[in-house]
Design goal:
alpha/beta; Collagenase (Catalytic Domain); six-stranded mixed beta sheet
């Protein structure tokens, strides 16, 4: 869950169905590049838009396949594996999520996929707003911010043990 500070335009995100969520100024497009997202999370665009608005905005959000995120992660971060979420500030704010990774993480944590997706959208949005988690104090502040935002939209605290 690390930010990638920039990427060239046209980084290889397949086009998919997208819906514009304008009017609130919080987010841009929600692009469903991997249709299986709709099977994993019913009303996925609404889940993503709600989480992004609650976090104060996240730019464009791309719901992609693991192979797409793996390729981007290798190209821009030197890590040849998919990760759950990538964030890019340039050329425009963007959060990209990997279907398989998100589904596996949700199952491993016994969480609803929609709740885990909302958490990762919030996480990506906070990265775009300058939050990070490289040091324990930063990580704790970011976790607390995520928990507060998720609470406002009815998603359980992902950091609560028990």
């Amino acid at each position: 869950m690390e930010p990638a500070s920039s990427r060239p335009a046209q980084a290889g995100i397949p086009s998919g169905d997208n819906k514009r969520h304008e009017g609130d100024g919080a987010i841009g497009d929600v692009i469903v590049a991997e249709p299986a997202w709709r099977r994993l999370v019913p009303k996925v665009e609404a889940v993503v838009a709600r989480a992004a608005r609650a976090a104060g905005g996240a730019g464009t959000i791309v719901l992609a396949a693991d192979r797409t995120v793996r390729r981007l992660n290798a190209r821009h971060r030197g890590r040849d594996k998919p990760t759950n979420v990538l964030t890019y500030e340039l050329p425009a704010p963007e959060v990209i999520l990997a279907l398989g990774v998100v589904a596996r993480e949700a199952a491993a944590a016994s969480r609803r996929p929609a709740h885990h997706l909302a958490h990762l959208v919030v996480h990506g949005a906070l990265h775009l707003q300058g939050h990070d988690h490289h040091h324990p104090g930063e990580a704790r502040r970011m976790e607390m911010a995520e928990a507060r935002i998720l609470h406002r939209i009815g998603v359980p605290n992902p950091w609560r043990r028990g």
